[in-house]
Specification:
This protein is mainly alpha-helical. Helices cover about 80% and strands about 0% of the residues. α2 packs across α7, α3 packs across α4 and α4 packs antiparallel against α5.
């Protein structure tokens, strides 16, 4: 409901300024061009998302995503010792982080929700420190292949959509380290 009010307000303010400045025609043209560009971007992104969802499905079928998830388990057992006691929760967290690592946010979301629901059981309505840490890991996830960003860059005509890889790797690694440090620090402060 709040988004409806926000969008309505933005349209009303735009119309008011268009009328005051005498540029209603330009406003209408800009709105039509923006709508057209949005549809083109959505169609281009749908193709790219289908490609990478298919790649993820092939990885699932050949066992590569399960192997990647197993690779994360020792680290996750140290970071999330309580959640690691439940094998199904650990599997969901591992698969979620694997999908995030491959830049497949849409595939990672249902796995993250399933892991969060399992971790929230018995918390009494208050998020545990481990659940907060899972949210941090999802928000700041390291991405080896930023497929969504590369897809947007490709749809907008980039000559080399993956030339951002070194910057993405550095930024995502630093964001995960900063997020983990902040989460651990805040966990110690709230416990003490």
């Amino acid at each position: 409901m709040a988004m409806a009010w926000l969008w309505t307000g933005m349209v009303a303010v735009s119309l008011a300024f268009g009328i005051l400045t005498g540029s209603v025609g330009e406003l209408g043209n800009a709105a039509l061009e923006g709508a057209s560009a949005a549809v083109e971007l959505c169609v281009a992104m749908a193709g790219i998302m289908c490609l990478w969802t298919g790649v993820m499905e092939v990885m699932d079928q050949c066992g590569l995503s399960a192997a990647l998830a197993r690779l994360f388990r020792p680290l996750l057992r140290r970071l999330l010792p309580e959640a690691s006691r439940d094998e199904e929760t650990l599997a969901a967290i591992s698969a979620n982080l694997s999908a995030n690592l491959l830049g497949l946010g849409n595939a990672a979301t249902p796995l993250g929700i399933r892991a969060a629901r399992r971790m929230a059981q018995g918390c009494g309505g208050t998020a545990s420190h481990e659940l907060c840490l899972l949210v941090v890991l999802n928000s700041a996830s390291i991405q080896l292949l930023p497929t969504t960003v590369a897809g947007v860059r490709s749809a907008l005509g980039s000559a080399d959509p993956f030339d951002i890889l070194p910057a993405v790797w550095t930024a995502s690694l630093l964001s995960v380290l900063a997020g983990l440090a902040a989460a651990k620090l805040l966990a110690r402060i709230t416990r003490g």
